[in-house]
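Work Package 4 report. The design task specified in the project plan requires that, given a folded chain encoded as structure tokens, an amino acid be chosen for each position. We show below one input record used in the internal validation round.
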């Protein structure tokens, strides 16, 4: 009990001191007049720098005209005789979750064998 009292008394003293300072600081009411003769004030207007004029961009070069009569590639089929067929390239992705939707004719056209049978 004594310890509590020793903690409460300083807290009450600090609170009373704070209230006394607040009352003393605010006891003079404002005069209600506009201060027109302001002293110790310096007004400095900022100087606006002149913005530089942007330099014009050089014109873009015109793209060359497309060559119409030129072949797109020299060889079709991998060689001059066009006989290099690439049979080992897998152009179709074989999804794991839908093999049952591919028919037997589809497997035949893909050149693959059916690994599972329809039940």
């Amino acid at each position: 009990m004594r310890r509590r009292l020793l903690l409460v008394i300083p807290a009450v003293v600090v609170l009373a001191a704070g209230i006394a300072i607040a009352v003393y600081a605010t006891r003079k009411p404002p005069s209600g007049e506009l201060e027109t003769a302001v002293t110790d004030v310096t007004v400095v207007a900022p100087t606006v720098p002149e913005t530089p004029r942007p330099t014009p961009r050089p014109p873009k070069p015109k793209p060359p005209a497309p060559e119409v009569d030129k072949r797109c590639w020299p060889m079709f089929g991998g060689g001059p005789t066009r006989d290099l067929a690439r049979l080992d390239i897998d152009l179709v992705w074989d999804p794991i979750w839908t093999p049952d939707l591919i028919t037997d004719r589809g497997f035949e056209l893909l050149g693959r064998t059916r690994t599972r049978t329809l039940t």
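The chain is about 25% helix and 0% strand. Validation will be extended to a larger panel in the next phase.
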